[in-house]
Amino acid sequence: MTERGEAHPPRAPRAIVEATPPPAEFLAEAAALGVELEPGDLERLHAYLKLLFAANATMNLTAIRDPDEAWTRHVLDALSLVGPVASAEASSGRLRVLDLGSGGGVPGLVLACVMPQVEFTLVEATGKKARFLDATASALGLANVEVLADRAETLGHDPWIRASRDVVVARAVGPLRVLVELAIPLLRVGGTMLAVKGARAADEITEAKRALHMLHAGVVDSLRTPTGTIVVVEKNRETPKAYPRSLGTPAHQPL
Fold first, then answer.
1. For residue 134, what are the CA distances in angstroms to 42, 138, 142?
2. Residue 11 located in a structural domain
3. Could you give the CA distance from residue 68 to residue 90 in angstroms, rounded to a whole number?
4. Considering only CA atoms, which of 143, 186, 151 is closest in space to residue 166?
């Protein structure tokens, strides 16, 4: 795992929330998404939430404090991507998915728990969060996960990463017009970006039209789910070499 160091004053620990088994309606809600959990998946997801809440006592990984809510807003929200990810085509061998701004592991770690046949790269710029992701993937036995502690602006110009992924998923990584500049360069031509959005999804699509045109990409679908909207973007041609721009520029000066 590549990592950048940072120094912060110590934070007073929070009380650890105890992760509980899923609420009674969870399996029915997952089935409604077309997700059939294999033996061991539910236990692995429960173990993930336990690790998430334990680590959240000393770092800011989630604002959710209610265990049942975590099953809906973290796990179910991530599982809404299973169908769109599974429908993507791999350029060669196994499907390669990159989770941009993985944070506490949603959606990347959740998807990796239930899609062992897919290769996941979790990108998280904050070193301590990246270390959590790496340690959690190991603890859960997720051999299909690698973690990169780096910025998308840097990775977008790395010849080993640029234009290499079949799918990029992202949740809570900023407005769509900012996100596309960070994500599209990482996709191969014909690859798909899946952005989990909320109530402003339609407005964000409108605001991102110029950026999408400049990046040679376009919105091909908008999928409503019980927890939000998945905006589906397809990369049509090679990304101009100038993108992504330098660190911080996409957020401060959106296309």
1. 20, 6, 10
2. no
3. 35
4. 186
- Of the candidates 233, 234, 227, the one whose C-alpha atom is nearest the C-alpha of residue 79 is 227
Residue 103 located in a structural domain = yes
User: How far is 123 from 212, CA to CA, in rounded Å?
Assistant: 22
CATH number at residue 45: 3.40.50.150
pLDDT at 173 over 70: yes
* Cα–Cα–Cα angle for 96, 239, 111, rounded to 5 degrees: 25
| Residue 201 main-chain phi, psi, to 5 deg | -55, -45
pTM of the model: 0.92
Does residue 14 belong to any structural domain of this protein? no
Which is more confidently placed, 121 or 8? 121
pLDDT confidence of residue 8? 52
Q: Tell me, what amino acid is at 209?
A: K
Boundaries of domain holding 172: 26-252
